[in-house]
Structure formats: C-alpha cells, structure tokens
Amino acid sequence: MTGQVRTVDGRVAGRRGQATRQKLLDCLSEMLSSSPYRDVKVIDVARKAGTSPATFYQYFPDVEGAVLEIADQVAADGAGLAELLEGRSWAGRAGWQTAQELVDGFLDFWKKNDAILRVVDLGAAEGDKRFYKLRMKILNSVNGSLTGAVAELQAKGRVDKDVNPAAVAGSLVTMLAAVASHQKGFTSWGVKQAELKPNLALLVHLGVTGRKPTR
Amino acid sequence: MTGQVRTVDGRVAGRRGQATRQKLLDCLSEMLSSSPYRDVKVIDVARKAGTSPATFYQYFPDVEGAVLEIADQVAADGAGLAELLEGRSWAGRAGWQTAQELVDGFLDFWKKNDAILRVVDLGAAEGDKRFYKLRMKILNSVNGSLTGAVAELQAKGRVDKDVNPAAVAGSLVTMLAAVASHQKGFTSWGVKQAELKPNLALLVHLGVTGRKPTR
DNA sequence: ACTTGTCCTGTCATGACGTCAGCTTACCGA
DNA sequence: TCGGTAAGCTGACGTCATGACAGGACAAGT
Fold first, then answer.
1. What percent of chain B has pLDDT over 70?
2. B16 CA vs C29 C1’ separation (Å)
3. Can you give the CATH number for the domain in which B21 is found?
C-alpha cells in the first residue's frame, strides 16, 4: 500500500532507520507545541532527538517536509471525524444531540493536534497546495456529510431553496476549526469552555436545519 | 500623543529616518504577501528596501518586531469595522441588510490585509500575548457590537435565555475571520465567492436573531 | 573473518543573524 | 561661513544554521 519509507538519497529505510525517523518526527511535534513555528530549527530538533542535523536531512528535505509528514498522519486520523455524522439524524432531539457530539468531537480532535493544525492552516492560507490539500482532507470528512445533510433537508423542503449547502457546511466547519484554534480568545470575552460548546452546537444546528433545536 | 519614534539604540528618528523605517515596513508587508512567513528574512527585506540589514536592526529588534508594528497599523484601521454595526437594526429587512453589510465589510477588510492578518492569527494561536492582544483589538470592534445586539434581543425575549451572547457573537466573528482567510478553500468545494457571501450573511443573521431573515 | 548494505556523523562551504565602530549627512546656533 | 552635534547608514565581523558529502560504525548474512 504505502511505498517503502525512503531516505532523501534513495535508500530504503530499515528498522533502525525508521525508528530514528519517527523519533525525529516526535521531537519536531513537541517543538511545534512549545515554540513558534518560525523559530523551529533543524539543529534543535536533531539535538532533542539525540542525533545530528545531518541525520535529519537524510530523512527530510527540510523542516517543512517533516511537518507535512506529521500532518499526513494527523489527516489520516482526522478522516475518522466522519463517524461523528455517519447515520445521524438532524430531526428533533436527535438533531440537537448530533450537533453537540459534532462540536465535542471536532474540538477534541483540534485540541489534541493544535500545534500541527495551526501550521497546516497557515500553510493553506499562504497558498501552499500541499498544506491546502491536507487541510481539505481533514475538513472534507466532516464537510461532505454536513453538506449532504443540508442538501437532504433542502430536498425535503425543510430548508430554503436559495441556501447553498456546500457554502453553509463549509462555513460551519471552518468556524469549528477556527474557534478550536482560538479557544483561549473566548475566555477574555468572558466565555468559559463549558459555555462555548452548547452555543457552538446551537449555531451548527441553526445553520444546518435553519431552526432552533428542541432540547 | 504617540511618543516619538525611536531607534533601537534610543535615538529619536527624524524625517529621513522615519521614511526609511516606513519603507522597510512596506517592503516587509510585500514580502509577507509573496512568501511564506517562515522564509521572510531580514536580509531580503533590507535588500528590497535598497538598504542594509544593519539599518533594519536600527529600527526593529527582529522580523517579528516589525510585523507587530504593521499589525498595529492594521489594528488601528480595523477599529473602523465597528461602524458596520453602529446603530443598525436586526429586525425585518433591515436586519438582513445589516448582516449582508457586515459580511461584506469584514471580508473586504480581511482580504485587504490577509498577509499580515494570518501572521497575527498564527501568533495568537501560538499563545503570543502581543499578537493575541492585537487580534482582540481588531475583533473586539465587531464582537462588542454583535454581543450587544444579541443581548438586546435576548432582553426583549426574542432570543432564548440560555444563549450566551458573547459566545455566539465570538463564534460568528471567528467564523468570518477564518472564512476570509480560507476563501480559496471554498472554490474547491464548488462554492463561488458570490454565493459564499449571502450564505455567510444567513448564518450571521440566524446566529444573532435565531430566525431566518426576511428578504 | 569477510562482505554488504544500512545508518550515522564529522566536516565543510555557504549564507543569514545581529552587533559595533566609524563614516557620512543634515541641521543649527554663533 | 563655519564648526558642533546628533541622525543615519554601512562594512566588517564573530556566531550560528543550512545542506551536502564522504567515510566510519554497525548489524546481518555467508
């Protein structure tokens, strides 16, 4: 399935090599959590992994290349977010629960991977196609389902004709991602974590169904 | 009012110095638009401004310091976003128009300053207080008014009691900012610019009033 | 022990960083 | 007109990260 892991100079990596490679990725991940992206240096990652910069360059072209690798793993994990919406109903009380669980799951995922995700966000915003694609891969899992839900309700006449399902779904997903990235900002607006979630769920429910939830 | 502009080593900057300083800021701004933040180097900015790196360091401690300066100017400009909501009504047709104009104004502002704003966003997400404060300064102008609008409707009983005005307003503002940053992402979801805006306005209207707009 | 291929690092040229002393320019009062 | 003074700029320098290479260390099979 996935082609063998290869070093930059074309050799196939063996067991030991793969371990070193992974260790470098882990250390890079940690560094991204603890220092600004701009200040993450190859030499620091290598030192932290107990190896030399030259070793780093054997496995990755540069910091960005390694970041893309991590992001790939996260994106694969993120595809599981689709389950949050698989076979869920948006009607009545069930709809309210669907919205709540979506918000919960999404925020958890984002929080767990916040460091790498904000780098992906930056790369995508800067127009880098590789980051852009990864961001899409993550968001699409949720966005597709959400678009489908809106379109379905629209077909049943329960949502206005002039609503664009993809636009609404995309905006909601983007909102969830951004709010997750800036949760701290809400505390200075006097909003606590616990209060934030139901209000987000409310917005999602309103956006998808056009109606207030029945709780 | 504003204390005199000073060089890093404490001298006050005269006319010529201020011009050089501003030129450096302008060139930095351009570079932020054309290359990834991580790759913006002092030496490139200086070259572009037709001066030497040493001159750059006379006015700014580092690239980040200069970015903060630009962001300050943008934040001052962004305070004007409050006008988009000053004295507006959220009732009936007027409410729909308010939502539309808010979306329009916000997206325009973000697009005009996208390069610097995504750096501010990154800094804030990374927990840097200086960037965080600037982001707040920009968003507060809109968020305050929006929170007020929701709270007012809530007082009149037209919005549910258990809605947290600040949480809803903050989420909507965050959504606008994020969507503006990732407008390109929507095209790959098959959503055109022109379609995006009314759907965003719909979400804003729904969030603020809890009802569909009358158009 | 010997070969083979993987894995790592010492070393080096290159180039960015950030500081400093010192040169040039502009302004101002005598 | 002529210094004097402060502003403005840069060349030069030590330090450090980058990225490439060749060669040494190591494990595994023969």
1. 99
2. 22
3. 1.10.10.60
